């Protein structure tokens, strides 16, 4: 899942070497924290959050096999 988020984010940004995904996992849920270069935050979020919403939808769909709730946060 971490690799999926990384590949999608690197395709969107101008500074792909600064894309990092941290995983915060506990017994009920998994949170992926995506950090990118400050200039690329808008590209990952998109107009009215459309790209961020699509990214979250893809990750949620891919995580159906896991019995935990999965979320993606975009941090600076």
UniProtKB/TrEMBL annotation:
GO terms for molecular function: RNA binding. Gene3D superfamilies: 3.30.300.20. Keywords: Cell shape, Cell wall biogenesis/degradation, Chaperone, Cytoplasm, RNA-binding. Its main location: cytoplasm. SUPFAM superfamilies: Prokaryotic type KH domain (KH-domain type II). Signal peptide: none annotated. GO terms for cellular component: cytoplasm. InterPro entries: KH_dom-like_a/b, KH_sf_prok-type, KhpA. Pfam families: KH_KhpA-B. It is found in: Cytoplasm. GO terms for biological process: cell wall organization; peptidoglycan biosynthetic process; regulation of cell shape. Transmembrane segments: none annotated. Belongs to the KhpA RNA-binding protein family. A probable RNA chaperone. Forms a complex with KhpB which binds to cellular RNA and controls its expression. Plays a role in peptidoglycan (PG) homeostasis and cell length regulation. Forms a complex with KhpB. This is RNA-binding protein KhpA. The lineage of its organism: Bacteria, Bacillati, Bacillota, Bacilli, Bacillales. The gene is khpA.
């Amino acid at each position: 899942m971490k690799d999926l988020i990384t590949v999608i984010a690197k395709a969107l940004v101008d500074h792909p070497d600064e894309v990092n995904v941290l995983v915060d996992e506990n017994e009920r849920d998994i949170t992926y924290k995506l950090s990118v270069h400050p200039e690329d935050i808008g590209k990952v979020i998109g107009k009215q959050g459309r790209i961020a919403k699509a990214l979250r939808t893809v990750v949620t769909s891919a995580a159906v096999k896991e019995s935990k709730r999965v979320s993606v946060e975009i941090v600076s």
